[in-house]
Amino acid sequence: PCDADDAAGRMRRAVAHFDRATSVARAGGRDVVIEEFGYIHAFACHLADPGPHATALADLAVDGAVASGAARTEVIARLVRSHIRLSALDLTGATEDIDGMAHLLEGIDEQRSADHLGAIRALLAFRQGDRDTAIALVRPSIEGGSLSPRTAGLRLGIAALAGVPRFGPSPSRPAPARRGVRGLLRAYSGSTG
Q: Contact at 8 Å (CB) between 151 and 118?
């Protein structure tokens, strides 16, 4: 088992490893490593110690992806930065990143990122106080039993935070979904994503 202090400590160690890897890459003239994986460094830093340093790393990750023309990397970097911005209640900045992701995804086939885009849009709507839109954005995947392991926790969390006690009955949904959000949380709690 891993308690919150242990998890935070592990994340701080991960950030220290990213810091070292970034230094080694820069010293070796391997800035492409930083451009390709800067978003991971930013997200780890955000999880370990949310604040301006994580935001700055996320900005660098997006700027690096834009400069190198790496569309998929830019999508993921914008996703990370939108999470960071939503945590800081920077709804304008988060909207900018989410719109940027949507624009980029029009030109590439990236289902995994499209799934994240739908979930982060729901979180943005919830943070903006638009409970109905947030629910409308998560309802189809929950009711349809098509929750992705990558975004199930976020979508179910939004549904729980929005106060949805249960979604309407449907014989076509899997049994856990018919038991409402609490049943879904139990059913998907073993998810690896």
A: yes
Comparing C-alpha atoms, which of 36, 114, 128 is closest to residue 85? 128
Closest CA to 155 of 102, 117, 98: 117
Tens digit of each residue's pLDDT, the chain (193 residues): 455 555 667 778 888 888 888 888 888 887 777 777 789 889 888 988 889 999 999 999 999 899 888 888 999 999 999 999 999 999 999 999 999 999 999 888 777 788 888 899 999 999 999 999 998 888 877 777 677 777 888 888 888 888 776 654 444 544 444 444 455 445 444 443 3
Return the C-alpha torsion angle 146, 152, 156, 161, nearest 10: -140
Report residue 172 CA to chain centroid gap. Answer: 29
Q: How far is CA 59 from the centre of its chain?
A: 16
Q: 70-106 burial, b if ≥16 CB within 10 A, otherwise e?
A: beebbbbbbbbbbbbbbbbebeebbbebbebbeebbe
Global pTM? 0.76
